[in-house]
Amino acid sequence: MDQRLEALLQTIQKVLPDVDGIIGLKVNAAGHIAPHLFRKEAPAELDGLAIWPKYPTPDTLRLIQKAHPGAKLGMVVRGCEERGVVEMFKHAQVDLSNISLIGLQCTREEAEFCRCAKPYTAHAKLTVGEPIEGVPDPVTEGFLAKTREERLEYWKEQLVRCIKCYGCRNVCPQCFCNVCALEDEKWVGTGWLPMPLPPMYHLVRSMHMTAKCVACRECEEVCPADIPMAIQYRLIAGDVKEMFGYETGVSMDEKPPQLLVLAEGEFERTGLPH
Amino acid sequence: MPEPKIIGFLCNWCSYRGADTAGMARLKYPPNVKIVRVPCSGRVSPELVLRTFREGADGVMVLGCHIGDCHYSTGNHRAAKRMPVLKKVLEYSGIDPERLCVNWVSAAEGERFAKIITDFTETIRALPPLTEEMTWTKG
Amino acid sequence: MEYKNVLTTCPFCGTGCGFFLQVLDGKIVGVLPDKKHPVSQGSLCVKGWNAHGFIYHEDRLKSPLIRRNGKLVEASWDEAIELVATRLGEIKAKHGPDSIALLASAKATNEENYLFQKFGRAVIGTNNIDHCARL
Amino acid sequence: MTQTSHEEVRIGVYICHCGSNIAGTVDVAEVSRWAGLLPNVVASHDYKFMCSSLGQELIEKDIQENGVNRVVVASCSPHLHEPTFRNACARAGLNPYLFEMANIREQDSWVTVDKGEATKKAQALVAAAVGRVAHQQPLNSLFVPINPDVLVVGGGITGIQATLEIANSGRHVYLIEREPSIGGHMAQFDKTFPTLDCSACILTPKMFDAGNHKNVTMLTWSEVEKVEGYIGNFTVTIRKKARYIDVDLCTGCGVCQEKCPKKVIDDVFEAGLGYRKAVYTPFPQAVPKYPVIDRVNCTFFQKGTCKACEKFCPTGAIKFDQADEVITVTVGNIILATGFDLFDARKIPQYGYGRLANVFTSLEFERLTNAAGPTGGKVVMRDGVTVPKTVGIIHCVGSRDKNYNNYCSAICCMQSLKFAHLVKEKTGAEVYQFYIDMRTPAKAYDEFYQRIIHEDVHFVRGKVAEVTDAARNPGEEGKLIIQVEDTLVGKQRRIPVDMVVLSAGLEARADAKEVALKFGISCSADKWFIEKHPKLDPVATMTDGVFVAGACQGPKDIPASVAQGAAAAARVLSIIGQGEIEIEASTAIVDELACVGCKECITTCPYQAIEFLEDKQKAHVIEALCKGCGTCVGACLSKSISLRHFTDDQLVAEMIGAMWTMKQFERAELEAQNA
Asked: Nearest CA of chain A to the CA of D606: how many Å?
């Protein structure tokens, strides 16, 4: 058994008696992996504990908590998933007062798969695995080196394949709205593939990811057209950090900056005319 | 080359009145910008701006009160934080962020208003029509 | 309190994408793509993503409906099949077998579709058979 | 009055000629013909003056006789006539929110050169309005009762006037003043222009009346900390700073001030020229009569011993253990009369104030000439004894100067003339006035100017370059030399004088921005409070129920300030008289089914007008607090919150109307080129 998996199993076994259940990943008989709620009363299920491929488990927490608001739960989180629950907490979608986070540090291979800058947890009190440094994101960097015209061409090449499956929206743990602007004919028209340009779906989604995207890359993973849409979200996150000093998913109580009054020096950093 | 088509979202209290002031002073500026009145620049959602581009606008303006003068005290602060991000989204999508003009005009600044309109119209005139850029096939 | 994921195959077309149905307390609450599925490899189309939508939908048909006096009313399966058989028989008798066409569905299994075309060719006697995927 | 959303939309469009203001540039007949072809438009007219009663009757007739249920008027700015046409609609039984205006004058005919282009722009704006109006919904205004009590902030002459007007009408006023006494700047003056009557003689009776009125609660030595609520229902939190005097026991006998051993330079009331004690009333006629102890300078507070005042106080009114008191009052309206600050003449180093002893500011000079002032009314130089033989008075110090303030301070010319007269009267000295332009426009002002000219005062037209004590010849030795270009003669002059008076301009209070924020109103770039309309609504502000009067709104002399104080009082009384008030109908509303309870709208609302319903986990708008800015709509990702009368549907339809028209013309042009 993988050493990290073994360690995770031991940690879960330690936590399980004190909680109603623990959210993690489980492999089924056919070898397919999905999120699962491991319960105290069914300890044998832990034989199927798995860690990869990852899934958007913050949404699993939201689903379970909606039905069982007071439940005492444990949850295995990677860095991105932890940031995910932090953002959802700030948007009143999950309650973390009864949740024990078990941090699972990503391996270098995993981090490289996700082009992840922060493959480690920051809030979880219990952690498994050694945290490693972030890895570069050559895709985003490569994109950044392009001129405006090249960027436009790049997206035309990419987005012409978009079949508007809404998979990126569906899988995103930060897309928890009851009603989605992307389904409103006012903002995103229907009936045409490839979608008419400018690509309203992707533009609106990029905007909505502001100060929300936790860089889990689930959207890219589920995209049947292999569109690297996270490039935009990541660049925006960098700009938001630069302009407003906000890092998504890091602090538990810092409010999303775009909702607030300008703080000292922010106006100057926006580059807007004075 | 067709004339640029521009929509301006102007807040009711400062910039819209600034436009009125320009009118009362009989200042002349190009007719390309059609003004949509909103209560506050903070009311302008990014979706509204994007939809305007989608509708074929070559440029979109969001004009509000100067920071500190907002009729709603700090409504324009939100615009000042949202719009730069929208500009970045445009930039990363290969759409010239210059096509979105975010600026501030007080009710007294008729001349400033006329100048901003004139300058922005010129800026957009120098760019190709957006609909031309927004086609799937080249040439 | 129970939450699990049940692996299944998308019923909407012949591709056969795999996905999980998220089951919370015995109720299906959502779809998750199966990242290790050999066919779909973690992706789905808009149909697959919404494959669970009909299950508890208030508009879902749970029994056959027969239009009586201009209104659709619930009927038993025997009644419904009886009606379809009678009407098809009448049409075939009056206008010939080629006055009838059959439209098969990707939502049905291979076996069902095989039976369906067989029914068309052997029982009704027409080659007017097509499939929704060609629409 | 209500229309259901299902009824057929029947739009009437009315194009105004505005004489030749619009019709001279825009082909109104063509716009009207074209508008008639737009979807849902059932009536389209052009008319000479839509705002005239005949024009309005046109609308009313169409509503009543032709079933028009949406109205578009293309004319001037909605800021001018939107209320006019809304009223016309209401008179005809149509909900006024089913009216929309296209601004084809200020934003088209007046600013567009080419007639063809102006017509096309008018067409686009009309199509936009037609598109929008089809989506408009009837709205009903909310009415809230008016609390008849009033808060007046600032106890200068403006605030006193406003207070008395309201109190005399039988309404209750809270008059709040941050200094120990009301009176403001006017209490510091000796004479007032142009009549030269004694400032104190006309002010103190009003101070007394305000201070002793049965309908006035006077809160001096107090400041507003927080303002919550809205017109009719403000809750104001006020900090009453500790006086260390029990006002119930104090008789205002003044023994404490006599006995206090600590002398302090009085740089507020005496402008730094005189002294007061650590326990003091700013001036003998102060209202209220109770002194305050200045903690910073009191020996007891600083060193722990002394208590001379306590020892000698015949009524035991000294209370060293007094603490600040925070109270809340509820009022329906607020009048801000917070006055001005004097321009700090030190900012212009070449005029030497603060460096050259005998350069005085206007306020210092006021104290010099005041019989109750530090010199007993004697005009003397900084040494306190020497009477000046020549005096130079410099106008526009810090005003009409792009390095400091661009605006004219409005009072300096008249003030300087008054100073000249007083110098002449009290010393017989030679007086020079250095002015850029003489501005004496009000009643009896120019007559005063003529009178002073005949008092042998020298007038030099030119902006003073420098005041210096560096003599170039024996005649200048020991003098202050005023270097100026005399623009009437066209040469540089050096005029030696004994004393210089700087007619410093008026500036907004240093804390004007914070105060504006507190009361929810706006400041201009110069920090003056912004009125609702510079001509037609000069004392109201954009925040209903908050009024401004006097010099806090812009430089003003006493007559203008008093007039504004009374005007603000009249506006407030008229609101109180209505009993209840209509508040903004364009408020936000949450679609509870769609709301996911993420609280973004709550975080972003500038007015705390959105609450969270814990039971439902949904946001909810408190309508009476909502000002209708729509910032929440911009923030809500699922668009579950919308702003009435500025909905996404309405704005998108308006935008599409304009875009559609522009694209139509573009296509037609292309076809014409290709043909």
From this structure: 9
Candidates A79, A81, A11; CA nearest to A46 is A11
Output the pLDDT for position B139.
39
| Dihedral sign of CA atoms B52, B53, B55, B58 in order | positive
The residue among D446, D475, D507 that closes a domain is: D507
Residues of A with CB under 8 A from a CB of D: 91-93, 176-181, 184, 186, 208, 255-256, 258-261
Q: State the average pLDDT for chain D.
A: 94
Residue D411 near residue D555, CB atoms below 8 Å: yes
CATH 3.20.20.60 assigned to domain C65-134? The reply is no
Dihedral sign, Cα of residue A196, residue A198, residue A202, residue A208: negative
Task: Please check whether residue D435 lies inside any domain of the structure.
Answer: yes
Whether D459 and D409 map to the same domain: the answer is yes
Give me the number of domains chain D comprises. 5
CATH number at residue B78: 3.40.50
Residue pLDDT, tens place only, C31-87: 999 999 999 999 999 999 999 998 999 999 999 999 999 999 999 999 999 999 999
Asked whether the beta carbons of D441 and D534 are under 8 A apart, the reply is: no
Residue B137 lies in a domain: no
Range of the domain at D539: 150-241+325-339+522-578
Whether domain C3-49 has CATH 2.20.25.90: the reply is yes
- Put the strands of the sheet holding D222-230 in their side by side order: D222-230, D233-240, D325-331
Chain B positions touching A194 (Cβ under 8 A) are 136
Identify the domain containing residue B60 by its residue range. Answer: 8-128
Q: Which residue of D has its CA nearest to B75?
A: D631
Only one residue has tokens 């609106």, namely: A204
At D56, which CATH number?
3.40.50.960
Torsions phi, psi for B87 (to 5 deg): -60, -40
Task: Yes or no: say if D227 and D268 are a contact pair by the CB < 8 Å rule.
Answer: no
Q: Are C29 and A63 within 8 A, CB to CB? A: yes
**ipTM field:** 0.93
* pLDDT tens digits, B82-100: 999 999 999 999 999 999 9
Residue in chain B nearest A244 by alpha carbon? B81
Q: Quote the pLDDT of residue D584.
A: 75
Low-confidence ranges of chain D (pLDDT < 50): 1-4
Residue B30 placed within a domain = yes
Give the type of residue at A193: L
pLDDT, position D5: 52
* Same domain flag for D289 and D217: no
Instruction: Assign C106 a pLDDT band (cuts: 50, 70, 90).
Output: confident
Q: What is the mean pLDDT of residues A130-143?
A: 96
Tell which residue, D436, D453, D416, has the closest CA to residue D487.
D436
Domain boundary among D139, D171, D196: D139
The pLDDT tens digits for B48-61 are 999 999 999 999 99
